[in-house]
Hints:
Blueprint: E1 2-5, E2 11-18, H1 32-39, H2 49-57, E3 62-67, E4 72-79, H3 83-95, H4 101-119, H5 122-134, H6 156-166, E5 172-178, H7 182-193, E6 214-220, E7 225-233, H8 241-252, H9 259-267, E8 274-280, E9 285-293, H10 298-314, H11 319-338, H12 340-354, H13 360-368, H14 372-383, E10 389-395
Parallel strand pairs: 1-5, 6-10
Antiparallel strand pairs: 2-4, 2-5, 3-4, 7-9, 7-10, 8-9
Helix pairs in contact: 3-7, 8-14, 9-10, 10-14, 11-13
Amino acid sequence: xxxxxxxxxxxxxxxxxxxxxxxxxxxxxxxxxxxxxxxxxxxxxxxxxxxxxxxxxxxxxxxxxxxxxxxxxxxxxxxxxxxxxxxxxxxxxxxxxxxxxxxxxxxxxxxxxxxxxxxxxxxxxxxxxxxxxxxxxxxxxxxxxxxxxxxxxxxxxxxxxxxxxxxxxxxxxxxxxxxxxxxxxxxxxxxxxxxxxxxxxxxxxxxxxxxxxxxxxxxxxxxxxxxxxxxxxxxxxxxxxxxxxxxxxxxxxxxxxxxxxxxxxxxxxxxxxxxxxxxxxxxxxxxxxxxxxxxxxxxxxxxxxxxxxxxxxxxxxxxxxxxxxxxxxxxxxxxxxxxxxxxxxxxxxxxxxxxxxxxxxxxxxxxxxxxxxxxxxxxxxxxxxxxxxxxxxxxxxx
Length: 398
């Protein structure tokens, strides 16, 4: 268990974070991790689907889940007085799902509709196709939702087998952010956390093979052109991860003063939104830039992105700009910690990935230690090479 007490709230946030995700799927299992997340709400040994969904909502609480490439989480937010009930239901759906065949057949259609919804949104579809180019032939490159072939093929025993093979009680965390102390949290949650049987699922995560450059243009029945471009990046526990995260924030992070936003939107008016993203994984990472623009402006927009990247490689930040970038990142991290639900999930993920939770003070100290030369070296190492993937969606006939 990982626990954080926040006294000025009446809400308890809690959940299980499992070190299992879509990259743990075998050939033919594409999408089963996400499907399992759905099926966890469809019935357990002692609860029907309605009782799971209504068990906390009737008290004003919320229960939800998500699946990523390397994690699955089941979590809830309730009034602190209902914390025990939340832990009971979360433990039940995480460890005691029975995967009713009738519910499996219904949920197949739901997931296929979810898949169609994403495919109909070019900004979502291009992300999935970009991943398949960045990690070709590897589970990290497969859509978390699965495929139109794999999803309809799943039966009840497939879920039990995936659970047995991939879930280990040594590689999951119960996380809570609550208004009471650790002793009280253990007293309330302990009886439920001690119930699950010992699980010994053993995953064999294979690193992706060497990346090859790709430059793909696809014609689509769309109005706006879309671009994703990027490369591999640093793994979760690489010492260069934090400097690269700062670099990404400077280039195309959430601030309106990011270099890409100031250039492509504010100066030239070519885009409504443009962003860069960095996702670290266990043994690799993904860096990407996304933008949408008119087809006639695509080449200019792409050249401007490349220009901003080159400048970060060749021109070290001034002391003032570096100090501003550090303060901006520190403020973003501090504000993220104010969101107790997301903070609870982050605690669980940090314990699984790093075996500890770094305090904001520790992170701020690491950020302050980054100098301009270090940033430029990492920019050159990460971005100044030929193994880039570019994917463009262009309107048909333009």
